[in-house]
Structure formats: C-alpha cells, structure tokens
Amino acid sequence: MITLTHYLVLSALIFVLGLFAVLTRRNGVAILMGIELMLNAANINLVAFNKFVAPGAMQGQVFALIVITLAACEAAVGLALVLAAYRGLETIYLDEINLMKW
Amino acid sequence: MTGEAIAFYALAAITLLSGVIVVSSPNIVHSAVALVPAFLGVTGIYILLNAEFVAGVQVLIYAGAITVLILFVIMLTEGGTGLRLQQRNEQGTIGAVVAAAVAALLIAGATRTVWTPQPGTLATYTPGAIGQSFLGTNLLAFEGTSVVLLVSLIGAIIIARKED
Q: How many domains does chain A have?
C-alpha cells in the first residue's frame, strides 16, 4: 500500500537532488535545472496532499498548476538573464560573475 | 506487491536515477536531456495520484517547453557540452552535507507527522473540477498568474534583446 509518506519521502529526495545541484554547480543553466527539480518536488507534495489529506478540495492540484506556470516564467526570465550575462560578461559560470563583489 | 506499489517504485527509480544524472553529469547537454525522463517520471507519479490534468500540463510545459528552452540556451552560450570546463565549484563536500541534513530533516518530518484526512472524496473527473475551481474560488490567483505570465514574457524579451 502506497501511503502519503511514500510520496513525501520521494519528493524530499528529489528536492535534495535539486538543492545539491544549486549548491555545487558553476553553470547558470545547471543551477536553473536544479531549481526546476526542486519545484517538481514541491508539486508532488501539493498533489499528494490533495489526494490523501484534503480529497474534497481541488486546491492542491490548482496550486500545482499555478506553480508549473510560474516555473515556466522563471525558466524564461532566468535563461534570458543567462543570455544577457553571456553577452555582457562572456561567461555563464556564476563564480566568475563577480562584478559587484569587491 | 500490488500494481500500484510496482508502478510507484518504478517511477520513483526512473525519476531519481535521471535526477542523479542531471545533478552529477559533467556534460551539460546530458544533464539537460536527462531532465526529460525525470519530468516524465514525475508525470507518472501525478497519474498515480489521480491528477490527470496536472500530468498532461507537466508533459507539455516541463518535458516539452522548458527542456527545449534549456537546450537552446546551452547551444547559444559558449562551451557547448561544457566538457572542457569544470562544472562544479569547490563546495562539493559542504553541499553534500547540507543536502543530507535537509533530506534527514524532511524525511523525519514526513514520517513522524500523523496526517488526519479531511472528509470528502476526490472528484472522479478532475479536469472539470479544476476548471470550475479556477473560474470560481481561485479566480484571483488565476488572473494574477496571467498577469505574471505577461510581465515575464515582456521581461524575458527585454532582458535577452541585443542592445543597439
């Protein structure tokens, strides 16, 4: 029997994978990929809570759809920023982008 | 093991294995392509959770649009596959420790909490219920999301535009 806890543990593991990518990757695009994994983990939680804890409400799935939309926005703006940074600074490796760091 | 359990563990294995490739591959193109099975595994999880509409949207937006967008940006920027450049910073150990700590915290919280289900049943046909909800109770969030979409569309164009 697959319970709510199974889904929560799976989503925790996916979240941690994304967190590890954000903390250790140098490439801006790879960090965005990590953020996408973390958002997916949050969505699994929302949908699982919808089914197991509040089956009468649709809020979990509605919130998951809104998060997917905002993730698409975030990806578009983030990748535009990466392109702009590449055009201006000739690098997308975030530890080399240190204009504001003294 | 029931069919549901087999499906769950298979989908979880697909998602986690591709997630590990996304996080650890030295080739950035391999990372981007490995996002597709990761997102499709999550899609299967949604179907297991009776969220067919969310699953469809996940395939369209994540597995379709976002992956292609990421691949385009990789190809438009220098380095291509990135194999010649170091892909990780020097925080590998600290990052692993932090990730393990967060995982322990989240899993402990998830397994020790007692969740009490509220009364009610899940709608048998969720897309209709979601549509009703979007144009009823959640109308404000729906409209707010559309404004954010418009703003990010304009913002992405302005940021990525070449300055003359």
A: 1
